[in-house]
């Protein structure tokens, strides 16, 4: 393999990694919102009554905050940790697999938020 | 070697895709497990009956704990109760009933543990066939995701224990198909399943039979059939002899109910809409896997067990058409579909590898597997949505009725004598008393000519029972399947619906309810006289109380109940509204609405010509003729009568009687401002006390 081809391949993979990183970072925000919606949906399904403004509504608001605050911290940690990992182990099977796991988890949350 | 390395490289992106798909599926199924756990926990801690069928089983467990018989050969004398099922589940409940007294949690706990065990055994079956742990876990979790499983496994009902035993039998058979001890174990577990619920004698035994034949020998298969069939027959004869024929009468005769094909079609459509992906997987199992296996069934992941089980479960599910059946008839189908999904998921990871077909590109198996896992995750999401929409909402509806149910329980507990009930006969069980009647079961027997209801009818007519509870579901008159027309007629004639709690009408005997007939057109002690005659009865309908007279349109007069100011909107062909002084709150005013006074299509008005459309502030006197009963938007002549508070600006809240919903204020806005008032306090009609239930009752006055 010539140096030029190696350079092209590395550049392509770096580009792919950057695109994937951007995608998972943006999806993390959507997934955070999806996780909050998912939790509130399940809560409402089990406990909410039909009233517009009442105990269940206030419970849902409190639950949103309870999920949103730690959730945003977890999302930040995931984005930063992913960045660190990709820098240190670029183009290793572990690095690509981490992208796959992260995307899978985010897609799972978004899928549930959309379906429920 | 170089070729292998190249194949590995080309497969790498697909394997990353598979890793992502596995994570996605794991997230979805973990959430499904959490939903199941919440549902199960809430049901376990709910103290009241969740289903008609719970109380009879608790009742049977109490009888067994006290050493009394549960399979009586005759229903000539009370109690008129039936033990529809073989005894295993009730035997499991009996120690709990003996130790802790009557309760529902023990039965529900058995069901929930059985559901979890079923999930584990189904996963075990897939693992035994494929050695694929992930597919096995998916199978287990998918089973718990089905709304029918989530809804039914929280009940103190026999079905899930039977399913767990049959799944255990399949697991033992799949795990050690060559072992004689496993064969005996399989037979014992199948027998136990059948002696928990008799309908479990089809799907699992068929699957085990075919599997043993294919994997071992036809001789072993027939030995298995002999052990199950022979053992079952011996047990049946013994139980029948011991109960003097009672076992056959209860378990067989009393289960022969009429069949409704429409019900089968309805559920078939529901399952098709609910699980389209799983049904597509069934097609893969039937058409694709056997073709690729090319006769080498070793690599086909238990195809020969799963397919007959699916066929048997489908046949079993078709019996849901029996009147009185419920989604419990679909539980085996859920288990079968979970097995199909697990089998296809396991097979998809081995495409090209284990099949007899020629190998293909290395990236195909992980790609196919990823697609299968993503589809399964989507399917699980659809199932979960249905769970939240249907069984969870049904449960929530009951959970929110808790205060009323506490009152109902106290009322039943305070009642001296025998109470009759249907949906909430568990209140009698919770009191520690044995049931006197299971109305649905004996009604089916009476309809089939197998039971003479005359002694019970005589007892109802003699007002023997101080309290009768008849439950009304929101969308379907189930009570008509639970009580014969003769029983309902006797209750209507000799009892009065005095109250409603948790959608259940409380009937008291005439002799004790203190009811009376109207005198001179008014109920004794009522602030207002009746606005019209109601010889045909009263019914709560379309937000108003319908008073139904005998006669044709324009023949039964309607009068003002008190002095007041009348108004009639231009668009009302049939109605007037009068602002009266509120006799219950001096100094305030209240609206009375008089509707229905026109022909059915509203073309001919029967409102007095003195009050033309558009009238406002017309003074009227008590007893003044307003018009005549009509059949406006209704089948019979009637008067729609409602008592309504004024809006803050003293105007008429038309939206409360479904007039002008689109004009003025929306109904929701009106409801936020005022509430419709119960006419009972003004007219003292017993029927008006059951506001909210569309039930037709004779006109009686409350004491």
Give a short summary of the structure.
With 116 residues, chain A is mostly helical. Chain A has helices at 3-47, 55-88, 93-115.
Explain this structure.
The complex is a heterodimer of chains A (116) and B (703). Chain A has helices at 3-47, 55-88, 93-115. Chain A has one domain. Chain A is elongated, with a radius of gyration of 19 Å. Chain A has 3 helices and no strands. The mean pLDDT of chain A is 86. In chain A, 88% of the residues lie in helices and 0% in strands. Chain A has 116 residues and is mainly alpha-helical. By secondary structure, chain B is α+β, with helices and mostly antiparallel strands. Chain B folds into 3 domains: 2-50 and 104-395, no CATH class; 401-512, no CATH class; 537-697, Distorted Sandwich (Glucose Permease (Domain IIA)), CATH 2.70.70.10. Helix content of chain B is 50%, strand content 10%. Chain B has 26 helices and 14 strands. Chain B has helices at 2-44, 54-65, 88-100, 105-130, 133-145, 147-152, 159-175, 180-194, 203-215, 218-242, 246-251, 261-274, 276-293, 303-318, 331-348, 364-389, 391-400, 402-414, 426-430, 439-447, 454-461, 479-482, 485-494, 510-513, 667-673, 680-683, and strands at residues 419-421, 467-471, 495-501, 504-509, 537-541, 544-548, 557-559, 564-567, 576-581, 589-595, 618-620, 625-628, 639-645, 696-697. In chain B, strands 11-8-9-10-13-6-5-14 form an 8-stranded antiparallel β-sheet, with no helix packed on it. A 4-stranded mixed β-sheet of chain B has the order 1-2-4-3. In chain B, strands 7-12 form a two-stranded antiparallel sheet. In chain B, a hairpin with an 8-residue loop joins strand 8 and strand 9 (576-581). The longest helix of chain B has 43 residues, at 2-44. The radius of gyration of chain B is 32 Å and the shape is globular. Mean pLDDT of chain B is 88; it is low at 1-9 and 661-668. The A-B interface holds A 38, 41-42, 45-47, 49, 93, 96-97, 99-101, 103-105, 107-109, 111-112, 114-116 and B 12, 16-17, 19-28, 31, 34-35, 38-39, 42, 377-378, 381-382, 384-385, 388-389, 392-393, 396, 400.
């Amino acid at each position: 393999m010539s140096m030029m081809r190696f350079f092209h391949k590395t550049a392509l993979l770096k580009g792919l990694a950057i695109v994937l990183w951007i995608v998972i970072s943006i999806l993390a925000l959507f997934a955070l919102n999806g996780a909050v919606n998912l939790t509130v949906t399940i809560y409402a399904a089990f406990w909410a009554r039909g009233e517009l403004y009442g105990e269940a509504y206030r419970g849902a608001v409190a639950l949103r905050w309870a999920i949103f605050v730690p959730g945003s911290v977890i999302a930040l940690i995931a984005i930063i940790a992913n960045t660190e990992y990709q820098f240190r182990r670029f183009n290793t099977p572990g690095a690509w697999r981490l992208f796959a796991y992260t995307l899978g988890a985010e897609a799972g949350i978004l899928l549930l938020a959309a379906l429920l | 070697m170089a070729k292998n390395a190249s194949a590995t490289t080309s497969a790498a992106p697909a394997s990353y895709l598979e890793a992502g798909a596995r994570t996605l599926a794991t997230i979805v199924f973990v959430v499904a497990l959490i939903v199941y756990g919440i549902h199960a926990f809430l049901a376990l801690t709910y103290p009241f009956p969740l289903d008609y069928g719970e109380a009879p089983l608790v009742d049977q467990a109490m009888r067994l704990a006290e050493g009394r018989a549960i399979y009586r050969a005759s229903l000539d004398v009370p109690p008129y109760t039936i033990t529809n099922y073989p005894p295993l589940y009730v035997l499991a409940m009996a120690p709990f009933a003996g130790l802790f007294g009557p309760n529902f949690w023990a039965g529900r706990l058995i069901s929930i543990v059985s559901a979890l065990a079923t999930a584990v055994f189904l996963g075990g079956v897939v693992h035994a066939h494929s050695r694929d742990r992930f597919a096995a876990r998916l199978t287990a979790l998918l089973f718990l995701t089905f709304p029918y499983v989530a809804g039914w496994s929280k009940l103190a009902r026999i079905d899930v224990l039977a399913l767990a035993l049959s799944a255990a039998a399949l697991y033992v058979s799949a795990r050690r198909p060559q072992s004689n001890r496993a064969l005996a174990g399989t037979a014992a577990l199948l027998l136990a399943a059948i002696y928990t619920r008799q309908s479990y004698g089809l799907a699992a035994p068929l699957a085990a039979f075919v599997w043993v034949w294919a994997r071992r020998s036809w001789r072993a298969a027939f030995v298995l059939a002999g052990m199950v069939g022979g053992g079952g027959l011996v047990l049946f004869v013994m139980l029948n002899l011991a109960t003097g024929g009672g076992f056959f009468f209860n378990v067989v005769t009393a289960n022969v109910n009429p069949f409704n094909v429409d019900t089968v079609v309805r559920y078939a459509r529901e399952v098709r809409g609910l699980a389209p992906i799983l049904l597509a997987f069934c097609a893969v199992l039937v058409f694709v896997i056997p073709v690729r296996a090319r006769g080498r069934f070793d690599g086909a992941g238990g195809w020969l067990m799963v397919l007959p089980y699916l066929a048997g479960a489908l046949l079993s599910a078709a019996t849901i058409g029996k009147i009185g059946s419920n989604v419990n008839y679909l539980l085996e189908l859920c288990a079968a579909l979970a097995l199909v999904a697990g089998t296809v998921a396991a097979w998809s990871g081995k495409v090209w590898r284990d099949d007899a077909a020629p190998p293909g590109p290395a990236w195909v198996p992980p790609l196919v597997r990823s697609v299968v896992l993503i589809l399964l995750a989507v399917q699980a999401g659809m199932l979960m949505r249905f769970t939240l929409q249907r069984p969870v909402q049904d449960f929530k509806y009951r959970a929110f009725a808790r205060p009323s149910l506490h009152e109902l329980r106290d009322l039943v507990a305070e009642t001296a004598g025998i109470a009759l009930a249907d949906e909430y006969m568990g209140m009698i069980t919770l009191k520690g008393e044995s049931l006197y009647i299971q109305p649905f079961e004996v009604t089916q027997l009476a309809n089939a000519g197998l039971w003479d209801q005359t002694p019970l009818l005589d007892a109802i007519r003699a007002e023997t029972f101080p309290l009768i509870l008849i439950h009304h579901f929101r969308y379907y008159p189930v009570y008509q399947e639970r009580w014969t027309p003769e029983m309902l007629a006797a209750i209507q004639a000799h009892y009065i619906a005095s109250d409603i709690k948790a959608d259940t009408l409380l009937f008291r005997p005439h002799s004790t309810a203190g009811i009376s007939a109207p005198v001179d057109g008014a109920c004794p002690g009522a602030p207002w006289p009746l606005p019209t005659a109601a010889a045909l009865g009263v019914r709560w309908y379309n937000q108003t109380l319908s008073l139904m007279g005998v006669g044709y349109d324009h023949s039964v007069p309607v009068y003002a109940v008190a002095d007041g100011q009348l108004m009639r909107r231009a668009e009302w062909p049939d109605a007037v509204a009068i602002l009266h002084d509120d006799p219950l709150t001096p100094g305030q005013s209240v609206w009375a609405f008089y509707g229905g006074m026109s022909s059915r299509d509203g073309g001919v008005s029967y409102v007095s010509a003195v009050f033309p459309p558009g009238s406002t502030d017309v003074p009227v006197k008590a007893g003044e003729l307003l018009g005549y009963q009509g059949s406006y938007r209704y089948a019979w002549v009637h008067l729609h009568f409602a008592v309504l508070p004024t809006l803050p600006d003293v105007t008429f809240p038309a939206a409360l009687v479904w007039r002008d919903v689109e004009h003025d204020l929306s109904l929701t806005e009106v409801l936020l401002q005022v509430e419709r008032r119960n006419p009972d306090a003004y007219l003292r009609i017993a029927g008006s006390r059951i506001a909210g239930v569309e039930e037709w009752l004779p006109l009686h006055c409350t004491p």
